[in-house]
Amino acid sequence: MITIIPKGKLGLTAGELLGIVWDDRFRDISFSHPMIRDVSFERIRRFKELISNEDGIMFIKPEMANFEDLLLVHDVTLIEKLREASSLPFVGFLDEGDTVHYPGMLEDILLVAGSTLTALKFSRYLARIYIPLGGFHHATRTSPMGFCPINDVAIALKTLQSKGERVALIDVDAHHPNGLEEMFYNEKLLKINVFAYDGEFFPRTGDVKRRGEGEGFGLNFNVGLPLGSSDDAFMEALRMLELVRHFKPTYIVVVAGVDGHMDDGLKSLNLTANSYNLLGQKVFALSRELEAKVISYGGGGYGPGSSISMYSFIKGLKGQRFLPEKGTEDREKREIVKKLVNLFLESSSCCLK
Q: Where is the Histone deacetylase domain (predicted)?
């Protein structure tokens, strides 16, 4: 049952609280490679410690999804593959060596999918909601990929579309959201993707020329950051959020992946936690200005800076400035990103109505 939360000790109404979808099971869920699973576990556990005493937060216990919910965006062959792999008595891989399966994993998958559906239900009462264990944006309709057995973000987008909502996606994970681009490339949904890119970095997608087709023509923006880009380049990339203002969505879906942090084990960018705070602040401001709901995800993160980056994003999503680290700069890479963003902004006005 969903209930409206009354004013608490801080005098906040339900709509002003930040919702965080949380289940203690999150501490022990990871679909990543065995070599970095412990890092994944630690990220979520440490994040929960950081936010435990934070004011203005409402914890939401997720409901379980069912198989029909997965079929909203995935083919039945993938669901059967996951069911079969979950019944095996050993750990293995669902793909070519990234995404693991383990005994009983199907229950965890349904909890992940259910977290998204629960967030959507509670968005009737809360303006902004965060799912720390979520943002599995690589899985396609038929295949697991890149630590992602399913695509929970796609479930959110498709569900919102089915309800007639106007949706903008902001995905800043260090890895391009190939699964989301493939599923929604032809659909009227604003997609702003900020990621590390050199043509070879996983998943080797994210061509700047891919701008969308059909009803989605002109609505797909791949802002590839040169490998090693710093906070200043990320700041330039976030100028793309001006397009969200012009698009006027009713919902903003954010994959706030923190694997671009300079200490991340998969090494791609040179960001600090400050960048994620800036992202959160900008999303907070847009949400208030446009009266748009926000569903956000923790995305990827595989290093000691992951938890503080997630916490920094949360502070921003509450409208609070939080700069825990010394910022980074690389003027040459910043100029590359600045030129790309300028090009996108100058050529986008025709497609945002």
A: 43-305
